[in-house]
Write a structure and sequence with these properties.
2 domains; 5-stranded mixed beta sheet; 27 helices; 7 strands; globular
Amino acid sequence: MNTTIQNLHETHSKRTEVLSTAGTVAAEWRFVLIIIGIVLVLTSLPVVYGYLTAPADKQYMGIMVNVPDHVQYFSWMREFTTHWLSANKLTPEPNEPIFFNLLWFGLARIGVALGLPFELSYRVMFEAMRVVSTVLFLLLVYRMSAWFFTDALRRRAAFLIATFTSGLGWVLVVMKYTITPGELINPLDVYVAEGNTFYSALAFPHFLGAALYIWTFDLVLRGQAKRQLRYAVVAGLFAQFMGWQHAYDLVIVYAVLGVYALCLLLRDRRLPWFMIVNILIIGILSGWPALYSFLLTKLDPLWGEVLAQFDNAGVFTPPPHRLPVLLGIPFLLAILAVIADGIASVRVGRWIAASRPVADEQTSNNDLFIKAWFLISFVLVYLPVDFQIHMLNGWQVPIAILATVALFDYIAPFAQRKLAQRGREASLASIQRWATVAIVLLILPTNLYLWAWRFVDLHRHDYPYYLYNVELEAFKWLEQNVQPDDVVLSSLTTGQYVPMFTGAHAYVAHWAQTLDFYNKREAVKRFFAATTPNAEREQILRAHSVDYLIVGPAERELGAFEPTSALGYELVFSSQQRVNVYRVPIGP
């Protein structure tokens, strides 16, 4: 009888434990989904505002920030609706369709499958991509946080930090309105989206889509723990999938895994064969997009020049002393965690030794990996390449994990000791909870500013986020009448939209994709200036075989020149006499 009662008690205890575990898991997922929902709602509000407040004579283009780059993507997307490869339509020079990008190809083909006209498809698919990328990235962040932390509060803290972290740019904003009136010092320290999850979800969702490369690391660590190479195969195939969308991120994947293998060698004093095989498998399976990108820019002169013009944007990683401004308090906490763990010791061997197994091999490997990822990123973000700024993408994940370590293992115990010295007792768990709340509040201001400023920008209802309906009517006429190789000359403001809406080549459209960008931009200004001789205008048109000319509000802001039939221009479209399209009958 006693045995039976004991068995019943044990069975009841096990059921209670299972139910408790299931309840905890359910609570965690509710927390994650609630945070994801909050992010989606907040980042959707400016978009909804943009559409709902558009004046009767204008349309919101669905772009939140950085119009030139987004219309570049939408130009590719338009080409992919009918072709496997895209030509560069953002420059007037003739070129073959040899460019491929899986993300924009996929979005284009889904839009076609849904039967959506392109002017609607690009908006719907872009918003769908924003939602999907945000959800998948945040789920992956929590999955990785759960891999590194067994404690639910730590997982939540790391997840919140990675989700909402932003830099100290709000200090620069305050200075703009106080100490340096009207001048925002080092604006890139405020507006760089790479490494900022919330800002990317708001304005650059393809960055979050690209940052999904971190799943490769998740798979590698799980495969290492289970000693199963099948994880490396999946990781390699996934890395290839991501590489066809954003080949730059393969640099991060290879560098982090390579440095991790080196750290394993230094720690264990033997070759980490299992990790070496992992890296080989991933490299063989994923290297093809990188090879394609290399050959594209080396063998094709046009795409080589496009790559060479990337520095036209002037967007590079801020110098090291400004990284704390860009990346904020979590970045400083991550450095504190690394130093406190002994990694910043004078002798390299001492910090490697600090990662020797303490409790178990997996814990040691996790510790070594996250520090390797964090530290090699200091090198990656300063690579001597024009795309170095993209190497910040995803860095917020190891920063958040290490910041959580600093917060829970160093800051909170320190605060507890100080409270005890003052005769105020507080449990460590309580301090950790309040520390989590405090860090979240401290990292929010810059993102709140970036979010609020979207409403200010959109409230202007002006270029480049809004176009006049008559301009869209002109684009529609051109779409129905141009040939794929035709060239359209207009202002840069209008021209950047020409390829995506018409399928024609723009004379000037993008700071990198338009060859000889600065000279073409100046040529357009001279063309519309009233004082420019007609002979010079004719030379500009002949140089790149311009077929059509748009004259609308944006062009009239450049100058008072108005084409006439007397000068050989044929008016082929006019909308309320506000936007005119002329055929240019001048041969090459």
